Amino acid sequence: DAGCTMRTVKEATGIQPHHFMMADFNAVKTLTTAVGGVKVCVEHAVDDPKSHLKLPAGESQIEGEQALAFLRTRHSFGNEGDLDRIKVQQQFLGSLMRQMSSSDTLTSPTKLIKLAEAATKALTVDSAIGKVGTLKDIALELKKVPPKNITFLTVPVVDNPAEKVRATVVPNQSKAPQVFDMIANDVSFTEVKKKEKKEAAAVAARLKGTKSDPGEVRVRILNGGAPSGSAQLELNYLQTEAGVTKSENAGNAPEELKKTTLEYAPDQADQARRLADILGLSGSAMKPGESVTNSQGLPTMTLTLGKDFKGAGVKLDAASIETPEVEKSTADKVQCAS
Length: 338
Prior knowledge:
This protein is of the alpha+beta class. The chain is 33% helix and 19% strand. It starts with a helix and ends in an 8-residue tail after the last strand.
């Protein structure tokens, strides 16, 4: 039930899926044949009676029933569990993306139409994308993405603490929320260059000049459209990771903002530049104005988190950020299942 799956994803991650593609066993056989097979690599010869997969060590070209067996086998690799099978499936998809990118499948109108027609017959999709022309357009957009920027990542998990006999896993709360935030905010898991919009000289000049030490920056944080709890999460980051200890959570802003802003008095410009550097604020996000009095009776700047807030510690100008200790792979890397 695709609808149930989409609701489960939303409940577990906070990410709202807008479309879906569902591939059953026949879809795997049909599509792998339509693209002329997929090259896979295994470190050791495989002879699995349960999935009926037989492969020699090294590289093989597989399609149809053999491709289905490769994706279904669980006893041929790793510790014979679902998580290791997922890794193998990701390697298969990476190989498929390399092939699609390097061949003329996505540039030949004839081959592309044939592939789209096969997809409409093999895949179950929602009505908004269930047309040959739409799937063709999606494929053409995919052609623009370099394989090195296509990331495969499994949600970080830990053993379910509620179980005495370990059988299931739950999201790792120290790592998974960052993954979900990055997906929701369209932040890449690989390094990409962000196209910068040119700002007017006077606006851009707000970022130029001396910067205060982080410990001298005084700022209060308001939530003006970011997800609930964002002000406290950003406060925690500023105080524990960025050294901005003279900061405080001031609750919700009186109105929602599309963009995050930093208001400061003229004599706080050096503090504002330091905070802008930490947060990745543009010149247009910096609003020269007035300071307010904080809970210690001292003048302080006001940072209002808008709807563009990408998560605690994620720079506003980030197209990508580091994801430490999160296992991932990219489609440009050739890997052998083991």
